């Protein structure tokens, strides 16, 4: 075990997560950090920092992540009458004579983080880097699994208990995930910021919502498409206490979560009055606190 300061800052782009840069702050209080873990983690940061123009083309393909096609489905009516005072089940056209169908639109969203499998690295529990060029990776937001594909074979889920970190490299930057025991050892959390005092994590979840459109031929309610809805949860990990709190990207929630750092928080909020409170805002706030 080697005592080293660790302060890694990650810049976020509008597309999701862009280039990541790591740096060490010599003024930060020393924290016990496993040197092998630190080396492995820095390897991932370097790996995703390499721009790869070939990945951009892959991200537009959906061969391995094919969505459901368009289908037709009978509409469930809100209220339909045929004749005088007779309520009928079924869906009818404007003159209440011909049964109707509607075109169900294409599925929206995806259970996968990326639209195609991309290069990546895996760090196991012994902090050994697994780097195999013929392996491609993705993240399944519904199951929370790291997915592995080799030579266009059917993807498989990697055993969570054997993975400490993994990263996904996109055309310009990438994502690093960690299994954080202080939050939930059975989930992978995206690292947005990792510092000596506080670390900032993001949990992706996705749920499938079936189409639920209803119509009487004149008025429609609900959506006529199935979709995967993302559920995002943010966590702040207090490194000294080993405790994590859920918080929201609002000034009120940040103040409440970082109540012990109220002075620095209020100064940062004052200095960034017109800024949107988003992931980047929170990352830079934590960078200031960790100085």
Any overview of this molecule?
The chain has 291 residues and is an alpha+beta fold. It has one domain (2-66, 76-289). 17% of the residues lie in helices and 32% in strands. The protein has 5 helices and 19 strands. The protein has helices spanning 35-49, 53-59, 251-257, 262-271, 279-289; strands spanning 2-4, 7-10, 20-23, 31-33, 72-74, 101-103, 120-124, 129-130, 135-140, 145-150, 156-157, 163-170, 173-178, 189-194, 198-209, 214-215, 220-221, 227-238, 243-247. Strands 2, 3, 7, 8, 12, 13, 14, 15, 18 and 19 form a 10-stranded antiparallel sheet that branches. A 3-stranded antiparallel sheet has the order 9-10-11, with no helix packed on it. A hairpin with a 5-residue loop joins β10 (145-150) and β11 (156-157). The longest helix is centred in the N-terminal third of the chain and has 15 residues, at 35-49. It is globular and about 55 Å long. The protein starts with a strand and ends with a helix.
Question: Would you kindly provide a brief summary of this structure?
Answer:
This protein is an alpha+beta fold.
SSE diagram, text form:
Elements: E1 2-4, E2 7-10, E3 20-23, E4 31-33, H1 35-49, H2 53-59, E5 72-74, E6 101-103, E7 120-124, E8 129-130, E9 135-140, E10 145-150, E11 156-157, E12 163-170, E13 173-178, E14 189-194, E15 198-209, E16 214-215, E17 220-221, E18 227-238, E19 243-247, H3 251-257, H4 262-271, H5 279-289
Antiparallel strand pairs: 1-4, 2-3, 2-14, 5-6, 7-8, 7-12, 9-10, 10-11, 12-13, 13-14, 14-15, 15-18, 16-17, 18-19
Distance between the termini: 23 Å
How would you spell out the order of helices and strands? EEEEHHEEEEEEEEEEEEEEEHHH
**Radius of gyration over alpha carbons?**
24 Å
Average pLDDT across residues?
74
Proportion in helices: 10-25%
Number of helical elements: 5
**Domain count:** 1
Low-confidence stretches: 1-33, 57-98
The helix/strand class is alpha+beta
Q: Largest sheet, described in full?
A: 10 strands, antiparallel
> How much of the polypeptide forms β-strand, as a percent range?
25-35%
Tally of DSSP β-strands: 19
Query: Which term fits the overall shape?
Result: globular
């Amino acid at each position: 075990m080697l005592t080293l300061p660790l302060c890694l800052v990650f810049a976020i782009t509008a597309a999701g997560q862009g280039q990541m840069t790591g740096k060490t702050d010599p003024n930060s209080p020393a924290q016990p950090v496993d040197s092998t873990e630190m080396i492995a983690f820095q390897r991932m940061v370097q790996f995703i920092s390499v721009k790869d123009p070939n990945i951009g083309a892959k991200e537009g393909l959906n061969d391995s992540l094919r969505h459901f096609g368009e289908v037709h489905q009978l509409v469930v009516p809100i209220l339909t009458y045929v004749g005088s005072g007779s309520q009928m089940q079924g869906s009818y056209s404007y003159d209440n004579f011909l049964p109707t169908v509607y075109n169900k639109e294409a599925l929206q969203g995806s259970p996968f983080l990326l639209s195609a499998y991309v290069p990546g690295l895996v760090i196991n529990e012994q902090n050994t880097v697994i780097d195999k060029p013929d392996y491609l990776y993705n993240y399944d937001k519904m199951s929370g699994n790291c997915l592995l594909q080799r030579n266009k074979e059917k993807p498989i889920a990697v055993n969570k208990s054997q993975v400490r970190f993994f990263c996904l490299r996109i055309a310009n930057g990438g994502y690093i995930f960690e299994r954080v025991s202080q939050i939930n050892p059975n989930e992978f959390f995206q690292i947005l910021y990792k510092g000596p005092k506080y670390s900032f994590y993001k949990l992706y979840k996705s749920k499938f919502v079936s189409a639920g459109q209803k119509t009487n031929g004149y008025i429609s309610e609900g959506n006529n498409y199935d979709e995967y809805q993302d559920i995002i949860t943010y966590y702040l990990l207090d490194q000294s206490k080993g405790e994590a709190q859920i918080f929201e990207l609002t000034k009120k929630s940040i103040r409440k979560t970082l109540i012990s750092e109220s002075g620095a928080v209020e100064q940062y909020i004052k200095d960034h009055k017109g800024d949107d409170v988003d992931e980047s805002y929170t990352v830079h706030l934590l960078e200031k606190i960790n100085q």
